[in-house]
Amino acid sequence: MQRILAVDDDKDLLEILQVILESSGYEVDVLSDGHYLFEKIKAHVPDLILLDIMLGNLDGRKLCKDVKTKEETHDIPVILISASHNVSGKMNENGAPDAFIEKPFDIKHLLDVIKIQLPVA
Questions:
Q1: Would you list the DSSP string of 50-117?
Q2: How many CA atoms lie within 13 A of 74 on its CB side?
Q3: Is 63 left (phi over 0), alpha (psi -120 to 50) or beta?
Q4: Maximum alpha-carbon separation in the chain
Q5: CATH code of the domain made up of 3-117
Q6: Domain boundaries, the chain
Q7: Residue 64: per-residue pLDDT
Q8: What is the pLDDT of residues 93-120, one digit of tens each?
């Protein structure tokens, strides 16, 4: 079963994402504090990361760049999600996410983007 790590400081949204993704057949880990991202990755390496841009005092774009530029994590697909930022113009830069979804998002669109980004099991 493929594992998705959802990172967002909105615990209600994390709960909704977990229900949606688990009912779609994914194993889901959630994280509400981006400071622990690499600890969580090390404990259970995800097949994909859903990462909010605004994580309290952290910037998800910086965390994404860290994930995409580290040797041990650069192959993990990262989908950035945000209501207030649009990074689609920066998708080809070094450390860019693999995809971007605007909030509020359509559940079917979210699942379609996840399916496209996940490696074939």
A1: EEESEETTEEHHHHHHHHHHSTTTTTS-EEEEESS---GGGTTSTT--SEEEESS--HHHHHHHHHHH
A2: 5
A3: alpha
A4: 35
A5: 3.40.50.2300
A6: 3-117
A7: 94
A8: 667 899 999 888 899 999 999 999 997 7
